[in-house]
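Milestone M4 deliverable, item 7.
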Amino acid sequence: MTTNGVRIRAGLPQEAAALSALALRSKAHWGYDEAYLADCADDLRLAPGDMADRRVRVAEAGGRILGVATLDGEPPRAELGMLFVDPMSIGRGVGQLLYRHVLTEAGRLGCDRVTITADSHAVPFYVAMGARRAEASPSSGQLVRMEAWTSGADPSWVRAWTGGRRSVHLGNVAEFHAQFPGVAPTEGVPHYACLSAFAGPHPALVVLPLPVEAAWMRGLARLLEWDEVEVHCIDAPGGALTQALLGQPALTRRIRNSGLPVLPWGRTEASERLTSGPPLRLGHESKAASHRLFCTLAAAHPGIRVPAQEPVRSRRELAQALAARASAGQTSVVKGEYGVGGSATFVLTPEDVLSGGGTRAVTRRLFGEGLLVEEFVPGADLYRNPTFDGVIAEDGTVHVVGTGLMEVTGTAYRGVTVGPGVLPAELTATATAFGTAVGEALSAEGYQGWFDVDFVTDTAGRAAPTEINLRLTGPAVAFVLQTRLDSVRGGRHLVRTLDCLPLGARLPAPALLEHCDGLARRCRALGAVLLTTIPTASLEPAPYVGVALAARSRQALDEAEALVRFGNGALSGSFTGPAAAATWASRRRTRRPRLRRS
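Output delivered:
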C-alpha cells in the first residue's frame, strides 16, 4: 500500500533491532527520563519472530523507515499493540496512515473493534482518529485504555459511482431543475449547491456557482481526510453553471484531461459535454411518469401501496377535484409534475379549502401547468418519510446505497438521518426491494447514475412511493458522508443532515465558521462529529446554516442536534449591530482571501 509516497509493508525479521530502536526514540520524544524509558524498553522490543506473529507493519519512504505498528491478538477482538513514528516524521501523517492500515487489516480479519493501550500524550491523536476511551478503563500511570472501530471495504456503490477514484463535482442544482417545465427557482438553490461538495466520498475539484470561504473546504478536508481539494467559484447567470464552466477553456481542458469521473448534481445537456455518459433519460423526474411506474411494479410488492393520482388540465378540473374530495371529508395533495424539495406540493384539508375561500379561491392561487391531485396518505409521525437511494452502474447493474428517514416540515424537505437501525427492519426491506425494482426499470430504459425513491408511510406502516429523483439528493449527502466516515474513522456511523438550521443572528462567513468550530468542539465531547455543509446563507434576511452530524449512537446524535440548535439560537444576543459588523470586517482583512472566482 502506497499513499503520498509513503509505503506500508510487512516488517522483515532482520529489521527487528532497528524497529525497536525507532519505537524507543519515538517514546523519548515526549520527554520521559532515562529511568522510565529503561523500564519501557522490554515492552518496546521486537524480536525477529514477531514480524509475522504480531503482524508488524512498517511505513517507509525513499528507503527510510518512518514508523512501525503491530496488530496483536485474534478476531473478533485484536489490539493495536504498537504504533510509533520516528520523531523526524511526527506530524506528517505517517501515524495516520499506519493507524488506518491496521484498522483496515483488522476488519479484513473479522475484528469489529481494536483495543489500544495509549500513552497519555497520544490520546488526542487517537481521539481525533475516531477512537474513544474504553468504558471502565482507569488510567495506569502514563497509559490509557482505548478502543477503535475497524474499517471495512467501501460498499459496491462507491465503485459503481466513482470507480473508486477521486472525482470532480459540479454544483449545477439550478441548471438541472431549469430543464423541466413549471419549476420556479427556489430561494435557497444557490446555497443548496454547496452540498455538491459531498457528491462523492473524495473530491479532487469542486465547481460552485457562488463564493465560499477557503477555510470551509480546509476544515472539511481535515475531518474527512481528503487530499487537497481545488475549488472554483464561477459566475453563472441564471444558474447555468456548466455552461459558464464550458466558457472557460483552460479549466474545461483540465477537467477533461484529469481522467477523473465528473459528478454533476444532476445531468443536463451541458454537463454531458464534460462526460461520455449515455443519452439523457430523465423522463421519470415527472411525478406522473413515476406514478405510472409505481403502479406497474406495486403488484409484486405487498408492502407497497400507491396513492391514487389524477392530472388536472384546467382550473375547472382542479376545482372539481378539490370540491369532490373536500365534500367527502378527504385531504388532497396538489403537486406540480416537477418540483424541488416539496416546493411545488400543497396539502389541503377540507378545513383549508373552506378557510381559503372555497375551491374557486384556492384554485386561483394554485393553478398552473402540469398539476396533479393525489390521494393524501394519513399516517403516524414515526417513520413517516422513508427514502431509498441507489446507483445504476455503466453495466446497468443496480447498487443499493441505503435507506433513511427524512425530516419534512409541512411539505418541505429539511434533512435526513441514515445509518444502522434508523428504520425498522421490515420497512427497510420493503423500501430496498421496491427501490431496487425501480432502479432495474430505469436501467432497462437506459438510465445510469444516482437515483432516489421517496415514500410516505400509512397508519399500517406500509410504504407509499411518492416520487423518483434522477439526480443527487439531500439524502445522498448523508450517505456519502456516512461511507467516508466509516472508512476513515471505522465502525458504522449514524449521520443526520440538517439543511436549514436557523441562526439567531446574521453572521459574516468567517464568524459563522468560527461559531461552527466552537459547536464542533462541544459535539466532540458528546461523541459526535459536526461538519458544516451549507456555509453561505448566514447573511440572508432569515439566516441559516446547513450541518451534518455523525455519531455511533442515536442518543449522541440527538444530544448533538439539541446542542447545535441551542447554540444557533443563543446567537440572538451576539454579533449584532454595526460595532460587531465593523469588528468582523476588520478581522476579515487580516485573514486569507476567499477562493478565487474564475
